[in-house]
Structure formats: C-alpha cells, structure tokens
Specification:
The chain is mainly α. It has 9 helices and no strands. The protein has one domain. The protein has helices at residues 4-16, 18-29, 38-49, 53-81, 95-108, 110-117, 127-132, 138-174, 176-181. Residues 37-160 form the VTT domain.
Length: 182
C-alpha cells in the first residue's frame, strides 16, 4: 500500500508536473517546513516521467531552481528586512542549528553552503548566517546554493531512475495486463 504522502505526491505530479516539484522545493528552500516530503515528490516525479532524459530533465531543473529560489528568498529577507524566519512556527530551525551553521560558514565560507545543500537534513540552513555575514553577496550565495542543490537533486535523480528502471523491468516480467489489473 502506498503511503499518504507518496500518494499525494503522485497526484500532484500527475496534475501539475514539474511545477509541483518547483513549488515544494522552493518551500523547502525557504525553510517553511515540509508541506510534502520533497524527496518523495522528486522520486515520484522521476518514476512518473520514466527513464528518458528529456522527460526527467524538467523535474531536475524544477527541483534545483525551486530550492535556489527558496533559499535566495530567505537570504534576501534576512539581508534586506532583517527578518528572523526562525521566529515562525513553520520554520523548524532552532538557535543551536543557526549557531552550528554560522561556525560552518566562518570556517569554510561559501563552499559550506554548497556542501550543506547536498546533504539531507542541513539543506538551506546556511542561508540565515550567510545573509548576516556582510562579505557574502546574493549572487555568490545563489551560485553556491545552486551547486549544492544540483548535487542533491542528482543523487535523487539516480534513485528515481533506479526505481523507474525497476518498475519497467517488473512490468516487463509480469506483463502490462497483470499490472493494469492490480
């Protein structure tokens, strides 16, 4: 049985395609919490698209662009308006996380932004201390965010393609008529 999140993800992908992936990744990048698990939605979109490069490329681009737009929005809000997104109940980032992210940024600079974006669980959290640091420009932050998000989406793409290939193989083994009957 498919879980409720995965089922909702499949419905969103079937209805809105890559636009759904863009919105969910933008919300994740903006630290707004998880409306839907972004990883589930991405893999579901890849499986729905199949294994053709032309079909999965929009999903990949939508995820990377969405995450970059969301993180850049947080960066700009903190920098321009001195906003504190952690004061919102939707943003699940505590002070300890912000302090740890600031230490990463102090030690490694912008490569830490790219590296943290490539790792599930730390994605986007360096937007807050990056915006507070006066030496980090918005375009440089966006470029680092984009690189890390591309690495993350690339790993998810590999998982999604493996699942899609498995589904295609299973359909080939048992026959399309049997799968349709299920």
């Amino acid at each position: 049985m498919i879980g409720a999140h995965a089922e909702t993800a499949l419905v969103l992908v079937g209805t809105y395609g890559a636009a759904a992936v863009f919105v969910v990744f933008a919300l994740e990048g903006a630290l707004v919490g998880k409306v839907l698990p972004a990883r589930t939605l991405f893999v579901a979109a890849v499986v729905a698209a199949g294994v053709e490069a032309a079909a999965v490329a929009p999903v990949f681009v939508a995820a990377v662009a969405g995450a970059t737009v969301g993180q850049s929005a947080v960066f700009a809000a903190v920098r321009r308006f001195d906003a504190d997104p952690t004061s919102l109940p939707l943003v699940p980032v505590g002070e300890a996380r912000i302090d740890g992210a600031a230490r990463w940024l102090d030690r490694w600079g912008l490569p830490a932004v790219a590296a943290s974006n490539a790792v599930p669980g730390t994605r986007g959290w360096l937007a807050l201390p990056s915006a507070s640091a006066s030496s980090v420009s918005a375009p440089r932050f966006a470029a680092a965010s984009l690189l890390g998000s591309a690495a993350y989406a690339g790993a998810l793409l590999a998982i999604g393609l493996a699942v899609a290939l498995g589904v295609e193989s299973a359909v080939g083994l048992v026959g399309a008529d049997l799968v349709a009957a299920l």
